[in-house]
Queue: 3 jobs
Job 1
Amino acid sequence: MPRSAFIALLASVGACVVPAFSGGAGTASAQSLTATPAGTLETQGLSVIIDQNQFSPIFFDEKNAGIQIVLHGNRLATDGAVRLDPTPEQWARVPAFVSRTKGSEPNQIVVRSTYKDMNLAYAVKVTAEGDGFRIAVDLDQPLPASLAGKAGFNLDFLPTAYFGKTYLMDAAPGLFPRHPTGPMAKDGSGDPLPMASGGKSVTLSPEDPLTRVTITSDQGPLSLYDARNRAQNGWFVVRSMIAAGAKENAVVWHVRPNVVKNWVREPIVSFNQAGYTPNRPKIALIELDPKFKAPTDAALVRLTADGGQQTVLRARTQSRGRWTRYDYAAFDFSTVREPGIYAISYAGKTTNPFRIATDAYDRIWQTSLDTFIAEQMDHVGIREQYRVWSAPSHLDDARQAPPNITHFDGYKMGANLDSPFKAGEHIPGLAVGGFQDAGDYDIQTPENAAVVRDLVWARELFGLDWDETSVDEAARAVEIRKPDGVEDAVQQIRHGTLQLLAQYKVFGHAIVGIVDPALRQYAHLGEAGSQTDSLLYDAALKPAERKGGTSGAPDDRWAFTTDLPANNLLVAAALAASSRALATSDPAMAKDALTAATAMWGKQQRGIAKSGDGRDDSSSPRSAEAANVAATIELLITSKGDKVYADRLRQLLPVIHQNFGWIGGVAVRAIPFMDADYRAQLAPLVQQFKAKADGDRARNPFGVPISDGSWAGSNQVVSFGTSMYLMHKAFPELIGTGYTLDALDYVLGRHPANNLSLVSTVGTDSKLIGYGHNRADYSFIPGGMVPGVLIVKPDFPELKTDWPFLWFENEYTVSTTSAYILAARAAMAAAAEAK
């Protein structure tokens, strides 16, 4: 359950699996696979991706590695590799990728991998064969005795592609269950047993031509497992054991995905699901299979009160070229300004409706603030009418993490604890405020700082006058949909500030964060209040024993307390900003926040501001130099231009020049408090950044930076939209509003793979199965923004709509959502400027 790599402070910047559109019946074609220069095997309707995506060195099994099958536009198989468990969990052992080369046979790809410390090295040969492919595993040496009976070849299949469908193990029939039902080993291990085993051949969903796959084994029998019996994020696993003594052809499979003859993916018409204000540009994008015979025009239809449709515009589409594996066309309906309910008609299909209205964006950010951000609050109980999101959580925070460890979630602690507490000792004062970072339950300090900063900026720049939530910090009680007369944004700024100040008061510096000590505890799904017993750990008690306010359960979260310059400066920036927001409602806390910010900033000016200085044992290294600019500017704004901060900012201009891509939006906020020379120095940087942004925009049809890393990039997109609006306001002669509106369009539906709004419940059709605390229920948290579309290398854009457990596409994060709130308000302002 990892998190985004960057927070917004340092950033510059459709609904179901697509059904088949087939020109033929549901029968397999005789098309053979062909190796591509990218190292995949391809034919119309089928892609075999072979180790272009590797297992993670930190988070291990992310379900995007090894041999993968994209069949009829759906990545339905993954992780084809030698594994040491029949149903591996996320942190189970994974092989290390060594190399991928062309094989000696035609249309053959050979991948070498290793479990180095277990003396297991092997090659997997994937070869086109008839209307499918052959997998052969060759070991460098026979299995070590320690791995005999453990190592086998696995291929995982997407559960939601097979729920309610059948399978055949040889001739024996079975059913893929919607909910895991065992069988389980009776030895107390918790290990799943096979759903079916002993056959030489297994066919998945013989009744469905779109998902039917047959695997035949030459060496040993096959087994079929439901890995959800081990963990909710498990897939259905086909497995063959590697026999003791086997070496060449230790496993040989013949894989036959059924490919519907002449299958062509249906077009996806993507647009802003929240709709459009009358005067702004309105351009939908159409994602096209290159084999699809695309019409050259599209129509905008208006929906009438009697259910009818009136065509109000028919226009030619404009090519946007090829990006990844698809062609794109644009449909411009900007000339239509009359308010109403509309839809787009293309290629015989009509989209879901959307609005054109002056108030189209009036309610696109509030749910993110009053529901999602509230649901992520730590150390309080959260209720919404009849629903209890959480009892008061983590009241036993926190124990000192030990030295010299790397946590399974990426946190690191060096030899120096930077703390007055001994390893394992309770740290008083930390069980207040803060936000649980993501679909897990940890407090990541830099992300909490980002939430505070984003909400302060949104209030100051655009206004967040909204009150739907009651917050009683003393009673640790939060109630959604119960106004209490105080702005929700102010209450959330205060809640975040409580935790940031607590860290400063205890340690004199910011810490990396607070996280669960044990993997089983960390993998908790459900309400946060039950993750710990909220009683302080006492080692003298037995595990189940309780005495007073203590217990023998070592479930208290660990505090990772490394003193990092970047984190100190990010927190200083957030506290300086919060002091402005809290000045009226809580002047005492505002004063404390400013005092802490000033002290932390001052300490860091004494020789830390060079890149790479100091240890960085955090899970996501951050630039102390860029953070120093941010903190200096927040203190400059808070002090209304104090010469100390203005002078320091001028000294930091080389840092701004070097890092403008990350901190340009931050840098321009200082212009009203600096002299004319400061603005003059930023002007060419803005011009250069615009040129780069225009170049990046030209590389894809969506007009925004699209991440090609291991985490999808909605945070990058909204941060880009905010930064460009800030530059627009500072340099209107250089930067227009189109960048910001493109960013809003992207996250609210105009993106690859489908046309769903990436913000749950915002827009007419949105992401309603997300990776949040309630993901085991295939549900969502209103207002949370998911990461969005991942580019599965080499060229497959993906956003699973019905499977919540891919964190890199579906995991809500608190700082990503606060970044969305800020970007949404910026986009509303940009739309208001349209003539």
Job 2
Amino acid sequence: MTTSTILLILLSVIISGVVAFYQYLFKVDNQNKTNWLLAFLRFISVFSLLLLIINPVISRKIVETNKIPLAIVADNSRSILELKATTDALKLVETLNSNSALKEKYEIQSYTFDDTFVAGKSLDFKGNQSNIHDVAVNLKQLNKNAFYPVVLVTDGNQTIGNDYVFSFHESTTVFPVVLGDTTTTFDLKINQLNANKYAFLKNKFPVEVFLQYNGNKSVSAAFSIEKNGKKISNQTINFDAKNKVQSVQILLEADRVGLQKYKAVISSSVKEKNTYNNSKNFAVEVLDQKKEIALISDVSHPDLGAIKRAIESNAQRKVTIVKPNSINDLKKYNVLILYQPNASFRKVFEANKNLKINTFIVTGMATDYNLLNQMQSDLEFKLTNKKENFTTSFVPNFNLFAQSDIQFSQFPPLENPFGKITEKGSVNTLLKAKVNGIEVGNPILTFSEKGISRNAYLLGENSWKWRMESFVLNQSYEKYDLFIDKIIQYLSTNSAKKSLLVEHESFYNSGETIEIFAQYFNKSYELEENANLSITLTNKNTKSTKNYNFSKANNGYQAIFDGITPGNYMFQVKETTSNASYNGTFEVLDFDVEKQFVNPDVSKLQQLANQNNGEIIYPNQIEKLLQKLLQKDTYLPVEKTIIKNSPLIDSLWLLIIIVVSLTIEWFTRKYNGLI
């Protein structure tokens, strides 16, 4: 309370006394008890009113004692059931939660976790995943800036989430209580399998497998990969006490187009307690990228051999050199390379009007440009008979496919007639023409795209010198051949941009959340934010069908399924407005990730205890844990002094005093005939 407020209160006392004295005691001949009572009541009333006007702030010190939180977190996943540790878990949690000494010292917080972190849920051990990292993240949010202990009742086997050893706050002390039998049990396990989603036909694709052994003796295991129940790869893997983890790399042959399903299996002659983790399924989609290319020419030129070699450096390409008059069936070719077309090419152009096979036109001094002006609408040629040498400059903002500058400016010049080449349609140029270092406005290499039709133009002969120069610069043909392969890849893909894109896996494990992601694009190929997407899911075995709607997600839409039973499923995603659709399949495997453990992960829990200044505890050491938690010099409650400021005007008692004093004064005066 300030000095000015105190002075005002003293002044209020004087004013209240003067008013009471003047009204009931001044010039009163007979001062009896009634006068003194009325004067006192008037003093109280006036003084209380003046206090309300002054409204002094009254400060009070309040001491609060805050108990340290004690987080008791129990594992509610199915692995506890598989390790036959449910009884220990329930007993431990009940003992800790009901201990009166702990309740007196701590603010007990009881949680459970599986794939999510939940407060106050009873244990039923039905969780399909274990995420200890999520426990650490949530406790950080709930108990910010607090020094507190955590009792983590778990087997330490995490199936999802980041490494939990370093996830807890550095000031948090963690006591892991180990659930499950720690006796070493013989077990072979496929820990992780890595494989590409796609492979090309007649190519080999890599598979990387990490195998784990739990035991102390030396053992030989048979590792194999099966396809349609037949072994396609088999080898022996040796383990011992020092080599408990082995990495295996295998090359498999992609011999058939489509989704190919495989199964990795590890086994030994020793009987295992748990064989659930001895196999793992995976799938690879094999694509046929074998392309037939017709290199049509009526002249002999070194360019033909250079183009053929560059293209066929990719084993998925086959080039056939033919003359325009001898080619009969264009249908079997994916791309037509028309080298210096002349009048004899008219039949080829006419035949391709209906087939619409993408073309790569290479011009030169023997080209009939009048024919080209008639047969294509991308470029207009106004050229003379004079020969000119054109060097190139790279266009960095070219965006049809990814292509870097492979030192095009250092390549030898191409020969082509001098004149003007005008772009009639929408073309995308990769290389521009230069004469004596000056750009002349003509393209050297340009592309056009109309719907699903794609064409390329290389305007000049002697590109064989480019390939030779690339070898001189790089000691390899690789960069140049890859450049040509990208052109062929672009031309051999007749895919218009799809309006509906869907992402999904080929396999899912039973019990895990299945998520299918979709994107829908409008006619301008912009992501449509108000699309109406639905999915029809059909079990191939039971023929039962369910319909779901997609919900909005980040940069698209998603459909999430829980509780899908094992089996093969087909589905159709459909956009209601446009009727755009996508059909796909996936398989739900009868695989429970929580069943793959035979022992608790004691080493991981020990690391966690060491990292967070705790100590690993076993179920028979619960008294030891209680002693550590109840030590007098640790985890002491925190006392906080709070200064609470209360304005007097908020006091109800002062108003009551005013009302009571005025009421008594009025009745007293009325009783004594003073009113």
Job 3
Amino acid sequence: MNHRELSKEIIQLTGGQENITQAWHCITRLRFNVREQNKVQLEQIKALDGVLGAQFQNDQFQVVIGNQVAAVYEQIEDQMKQSSISKPETDAPRSKGINAVLDTISGIFTPILPAIVGTGMLKGILALLVTLGAIQENSGEYQVLSSIANAAFYFLPFLLALSSARKFKVNEYIALTLAGTLLYPTILNAYLANQLEPIRFLSLPVSIVNYTQSVIPIILGVWLLSYVHRWVDRFIPGPVKVIFTSMIVLVITVPILLIAIGPLGNYMGIYLEMGTSWLFAHSGPLTGIILGGFMPLIVMTGMHYAFFPGTLQNLSKLGYDVLLLPINLITNMSQAGAVTAVFLKTKDKRMKSIALSSGISALLGITEPALYGVTLKLKKPFYASLIGGAAGGGFITAVGLKCFGFAVPGLLSLPLYIGPNGGMSNFWYALIGIGISFSVSFVVTLLLKWDEPNTRNSALSDSTQTLTEQDTTISSSQEMVTPVTVHSIEEKKGEVFSPLIGELVPLSELPDQTFAEELTGKGIAIRPQDGRVTAPFDGTVTLVAKSKHAIMLTSSSGIDILIHVGLNSVSLKGKYFDVKVVAGQEVKKGELLLEFDMDGIQGTGIDLVTPVIVTNTPDYLDVVPVQVKGVIPMNELLLLTVR
């Protein structure tokens, strides 16, 4: 599936453009705000070729793409622009509390990452070239390249003003003007000349503060600007809006920013810096162990964006970061160690290929392919990566590892760990931390055992005894799958008996792609010859659809079954169905669950073929239909689940 086809499928399965209120992307994920979460077809999106995973986090819908996310997003953006569908966002659900804060920080910082990451990498390369003696600090080449490397950070308020304006939905050029007032020479030159006596505006003091590289003041300023602009715009007549609205908005907002918000934001940054220093001074390695162990979980939830203001503030005030960037470097290498071990240990060719490519990405600082494509799928390598991250995190915080620039935390960012004066001790600490994290994760993964993704068939073929005659008695018109062997793993198999009498139909032959492609799980369908549905095992009714056409049950051994009478039968809204049980009710095998009027339903044109699905299929090595053709009696053995 190419990028355009994938983007089209994602938009459609997210509920269409009318359900999307905002779309953007980070390094590996598409991020959406949606009006109605129940319109998002999560499992179908996960099953798309090119999608590594999908989830709701902090009121965002996230689709993990990996290294090709920018190309896919470009197609999404293009298709959404071309579409004529447009709805106001006033009916979109709003995030609340911490989710709103994280959503705002994510939306502001994600668009500017290419600029600060690119210039940060250049800064690291310059440090390496100076250390190797390949370039002199007083040379013209160094001065030009240094200007490029420092520009994004020096003028960071401009980048944040533009991004914040888009997030708060206010005029971008007015926001840029706001940033210009913070960096205007009147204040900046006074600060550089150490003339710290406040300027007076209407007798109120305008503090002399260095706002270059600052983060919080401009974000708060643009946030205020968005409210002032909406308020002023209401009272200005249409013909003169372009003349007076922006002038009045700036005259109101800029003094408030310079007198109150700017200094407040500056002090908030200072206290963030002090808080970080206190944390490391009083807890040291413990902080690194905790953050190193939990950083993958923090990244998965999007909580890492909460560290961005403090990280940039530390780079601005201290010239280095000791928290987010070093910890992320270590945990990324831990993911790389885990998938490298999977690559060496797995016998599954497809998993070996994924582990190799995602391991290379993890070494370069992009861990989502490793996380969603390998370690989380196999589970135990994920636990090993947490252990490796904790070990490496404890070491780097014990020695006080510093990162002197902002870049994607991978091997290419290592030059950023060279000290400002060419000191190499910090660089060696970084290498040792990487070695600890990678090695611990690698070794623990090798020592742990996990279920191979393609061991399902071998688990069956290695068995030595076939089904007993009692298990395999069927009518002469029925055809067996050859041969299913299960008795040597008796304790690991589960039995599902037929809840209906009727003709067997493989799921792949159904016109409904959700069932045909096994997106809801494996199983088989039955074209009923009688309007009764009975319990396929001893268990509990877990769900009865409001439209009465579907029932879910859980067996005493943990098998989750969906019995879905008819295709698109939800449209009948319960007509022709008579449910005999309620959710939470315990039932015995063969107990009547549901009766339905076959003639009435078929008279509406609805296909009565009934999928019987094991919805927790991933919990098993395989789900095997005992027979795939012919007519099956009610309460005959239908499916086997093998652990």
